[in-house]
Amino acid sequence: FLFAGLFLPLLLDFGLLEFFGALMTKVMRPLFKLPGRSAIDCLASWIGDGTSGVLLTSKQYEQGFYTKREAAIIGTTFSLVSITFSIVVLTYVGLEHLFVQYYFTIIVAGLACAIIMPRIPPLSRKPDTYYEQTSKQVDESIPEGTSVFQWGLRLATMRARLNNGMFSLFKNGMKNVLDMWIGIIPIVMTIATLANIIAEYTSIFMYLGAPFVPILSLLQVPEAAAAAQTMVVGFADMLLPAIIGNGVVESEFTKFIIASVSVTQLIYMSEVGALLLSSKIPVKFIDLVIIFFERTLISLPIIVLIAHILL
């Protein structure tokens, strides 16, 4: 949270979003129904952490650069965990030697979810309107006779000129840090603690995972009954499926699927889910529940298919 908040102005205040917004619009808009600048949200998450992605999205939404629908799509689709944390998950299940296959699987399944999710409820039903306290602040049209690169560079330069120096950069960064420490961490700790208590000391997630037993069996996944509970326990915390799966599952094939699904599910209440609920991004708890299961059902067959091919 400290570094995510402190360095966020480097992404916001020096034209990076404006530059990539011009370059990536023709890719992001048809594929994901998003403006080009949202590509940086994804990059910030994959290189940094999902925390950075959610905070960046929330700030951009409040400033009028994303509509309600766009902010909800980005926050629940692009706020992936970092590459380094993905390695942590893989290490827990003892499959470090399969990192290339593992990350290729995550990329394919993640892209499939990113293309499908904006086109189905609840995300497709979010209003395409801007934050009530601001108005639209972005124009994706490019003037005639100007290349995409030139226009992006011009917008980035104009944005960078508005910066007020190092003191302002540090001030805005510390404000972000304090917002998270005071406003978000208590919520994260509360929700994450309750979710982990439920996962560790009750059988709720085991019962919720029961419908996945026939699905996993149909997909020819070994130890389907043991793996089923890990399909839903990730809603509490992303690391729990790997921890529980490593204790109850012996099959390397099944462990690979558990590790891959836990990352592509993306919504977990110990961090990203709690951050989304505490931000201005227009998503409700029931939205996160539905999106979690939708992402699971979309990514699971893809991951199993790739696992059957590669392993």
Structure description:
This protein has 311 residues and is mainly α. Helices cover 69% and strands 0% of the residues. It has 17 helices and no strands. α1 (2-12) crosses α4 and α9 packs across α16. The longest helix is centred in the middle third of the chain and has 36 residues, at 166-201. The radius of gyration is 20 Å and the shape is globular. The two termini are 37 Å apart. The mean pLDDT is 87.
Q: What does the main sheet amount to?
A: none
Can you tell me the overall shape? globular
Low-confidence stretches: none
Structural class: mainly alpha
The helix/strand order is: HHHHHHHHHHHHHHHHH
Radius of gyration: 20 Å
Strand content: under 5%
Please give the count of helices.
Answer: 17
Helical amount: 55-70%
Number of strands: 0
Topology of this protein?
Elements: H1 2-12, H2 16-32, H3 38-47, H4 50-62, H5 68-77, H6 83-92, H7 99-116, H8 148-161, H9 166-201, H10 204-209, H11 212-218, H12 224-228, H13 230-233, H14 240-248, H15 252-264, H16 272-278, H17 285-310
